[in-house]
Amino acid sequence: MAAILPSDDAWYWAPGWQAAEAEAEADADFREGRSRRFDSMEDLFAESDAIRGETSA
């Protein structure tokens, strides 16, 4: 298999490292007030659809 990134940068793209990066971003978003609570999954999905400009059928 061909490498598409330098081998000394491969650690950053390892699944465990990427999971930690995503968790750190989520923690920062929560800490800085960039999160919302929804009363139900339906409310969450409705908000998601509205942001994407989709409507329910």
SSE layout:
Elements: H1 15-31, H2 41-52
Q: Could you explain the architecture of this structure?
A:
It is a single chain. The protein has helices spanning 15-31, 41-52. With 57 residues, the protein is mainly alpha-helical. It is built from 2 helices and no strands.
Structural class comes to mainly alpha
Secondary-structure element sequence?
HH
The major pleated sheet works out as: none
Low-pLDDT runs of 5+ residues are none
Instruction: Classify the beta-strand content into a percent band.
Output: under 5%
Number of helices: 2
What is the rounded distance between the termini? 45 Å
Approximate shape: elongated
Summarize the amount of helix as a percent range.
40-55%
Mean pLDDT, to the nearest integer, reads: 88
Number of strands: 0
Question: How would you summarize what this structure contains?
Answer:
By secondary structure, the protein is an all-alpha fold. It contains 2 helices and no strands.
Task: State the main characteristics.
elongated; 51% helix; 0% strand; mainly alpha
